[in-house]
Batch of 3 targets.
Target 1
Amino acid sequence: MDSTEVRHLDVHGYRRAYRIAGGGPPLLLIHGIADSSETWKPVMSMLAEHHTVIAPDLLGHGDSDKPRADYGVAAYACGMRDLLGVLGVDEVTVVGHSLGGGIAMQFAYQFPERCERLVLVSSGGVGREVHPLLRLASGPLAAETGLALATSAPVQGLVRLAAPLLRRGLRMGPDFDHVLARYQGLTSMTARQAFLRTLRAGVDMRGQVITMLDRCYLTAGMPTLIIWGANDTVIPATHATVAHHAMPGSRLCVFPRTGHFPHHDQPERFVDTVVEFIKSTHPQKYDQEKWRDFLRTGHTFPPETSSGT
């Protein structure tokens, strides 16, 4: 298991793409919206020196099938469980970026007995704020026909020509090139439909809809690391502090001069931070009685952090 080439298997009749490399304790890498497992290539080989690294293409993304299906975070979390089941992996440290962070949190909530540690990277699901382009894309003007026009070859050509102006106008800093590459990948009808369904499951015109803050107390006892870029223009870095306060015992690491993609902007530091975190913590062992006690007691984080705004 030492190749990072894309592999395929069928789960529930759908073709799922994934990469797997290395050996040792398993590490699941979950990418963000309109992205794929390719996003992890800058860090995957380095992480594979210490771990068996599994990086899937989410359903509707990358080289996986793009059916008319449920693209909510709960469905994605179930998909991760089933993929791990097919691969024979029972317990795993989960790393999630952006939308993948929300899926990672949902995985830890739905399947605590399978989640040893949690690493959230510029994660969704903390507060409402998100880049205006994503709010706009969730609205009625971004129907399939509108998005088809916006991603057509002539318009994409104009966007490339206007990139220097857009870079300044959109104020996306280090994130512009990464976001532009994801936009340029929405050329097929099935990819656009999956993107819209995924986006609208978690974002509307007012911002992010789903919050993980109401259940963050359940991570008490689960080693949790939060990584964020100080210059994130997609999801503001202020969300990192909110998540840190809401998750008992979590570690927070904010990378300076870094945007929404810390694993791209500072890959060596990213790997060192994740590997050191795993080496210095013990995996959570699920305790059903303790889980029941947490549920009965309820959340313990300050009320002002619970609104997600």
Note: The chain has a mean pLDDT of 88.
Target 2
Amino acid sequence: MSDSATKINLLGLSPAKLIAFFEQQGEKKFRATQVLKWLHQQGASSFDEMTNISKAMRAKLAEVAEIREPEVLLDKTSRDGTRKWVIRMDGGSAIEMVLIPDGDRRTLCVSSQVGCSLDCSFCSTGKQGFNRNLSTAEIIAQLRVAIRSCGPFEPSKRHVTNVVMMGMGEPLMNFENVVDATQLMMDDNAYGLSKRRVTLSTAGVVPALDKLSQVSDVSLAISLHAPNNELRDQLVPINKRYPIEELIAASNRYLESLPDKRAATVEYTLIDGVNDQPEHARELAKLLKQLPCKLNLIPFNPFPNSGYRRPSEQAIQRFKDILVRASIITTVRRTRGDDVDAACGQLVGQVEDRTRRSQKYIPVVQEEPAQGKMSQV
């Protein structure tokens, strides 16, 4: 029998790659559809469960392939119903995901990398450094874990209605694996989610965003957080390579490539005394007139040694009012799951810190708390 290390984890194969796998095995294409449904609609964890496939075929699959999920280290549910998992990946690294219920809507926030290399100054994940990209299997397994945790797999019942690639990592820096995973999420023989209900969030990797328009039609979110280049250079360092003007232009190109009319979601974390002033709101309103979008304002969710504070409710409302008066569709995303550290990167940071970046970060913010001007880390 093949060694487990050489076996292909079928969870990581997109529909097209699963067809290619069966053709390499000398099997017909329809086998891919059968297995796809067993894996992603029925939640099969072994080939023995695949009862419409012959025993001989199942034995053959077991020789060359496997169905392997990562280990759940922590599963916590907030008082408000938000549920968060920490999951151990191959090599011992951990990632996290969050399920946010809101009426009939249940949104799963999925990670694409172990840590993140972008080092956005307000992000808990960024302070843990970058370890590696997640495989397609490790990305899609997060959806499987969430569904199974909410009850048995039932194709007619949606335990998860929406997926957002807004967890740990920059999705466009793990391009192929993220594209394959989102294809599985949207495939009718897998999870069957609408392209409007699968959203990829990027901090602005412009060349990869242009490439995405050629292979995918997922919905788009932009992690913006500042209305001008000077401030965004400090908050989101990748802006120094791909400034706001290039990001807005690339986002427009992506939206124009879609077969239907869709707006982008713009994410803007409000930080007390940093990017929450009326002049920032007015500048942001002018900027967003250039892009079909809706705006999510996210009050900063404090984490230890961040050096930042959440704005007052008065400041949040004042900022929103300016945008609304400028005819920008604006929503304030209220903090969820405070009691389970549901802000991205917080909980896994308690489980492990695999780089020394956070050790370097702590003395910086202790010596120079951010009040209007931010120090570089």
Note: The longest helix spans residues 136-150.
Target 3
Amino acid sequence: MSAAMPVIYLSHGAPPLADDPVWPTELAAWARQLPKPRAVLVISAHWEAAPMTIGATTTQPLVYDFWGFPQRYYQVRYPAPGAPELAAEVRGLLSGAGYGTADDPGRGLDHGAYVPLMEMYPEADVPVLQVSMPTLDPRELYAIGRRLAPLRQAGVLIVGSGFFTHNLREMNPMSGPTDAPPPSWSVEFDQWGNEVLSTGDIDAVLDFQSKAPAPGRAHPRIEHFAPLFVSLGAGEEAGVPRTTVQGFWYGLAKRSIQLG
């Protein structure tokens, strides 16, 4: 039996990620260190729908779910193959645990999926399936991740895609992506998250709203932290998470982790 694939959570960035002087190189180097996946399963902060909804299993137009950017960002293409076999596996794993699923065959990849994958697999040669988050409850998402864990043995890279801190109202886009000191609430939350993850204190992560410093400023709404819970559940047997990308982008923590 082949070794299980790792599980990752990444901070995915906005469409201008492609223009960042550092981040694309970090993602590309990370991908080179991973085994080549048979397929990628993405849980993105930008798709919430209950029950868990399975996106397109054929190549569809991208979902440009952002506003106010230069026109070139709406002309990006990422024609990754669909993953119908993976979709069937996801349905089977979830239905066996009593979770319902739905299908949205016309729903293409949103920017939480294609923006990082363009840097990690620029040839668009790895099949990709995106599924929705059916809830934002940390423990329910962790349980869903545990149900998806067998996909690791089948060569599937499970990707939770969000942002380690995410408060757009307090971003300062005039400061530049990396040269201004990040705000204290973002630094403190990031340091706390690194500590609890590196010691394997998953309960603290799941209960971050009562245990982390400034959780309401780091995440006024938790959808960008929530994909982490799925990744932690899927990687429960893979050991203690380790940081692969760190630092700040316009004051937001871009910490990303790998299990396994």
Note: The radius of gyration is 17 Å.
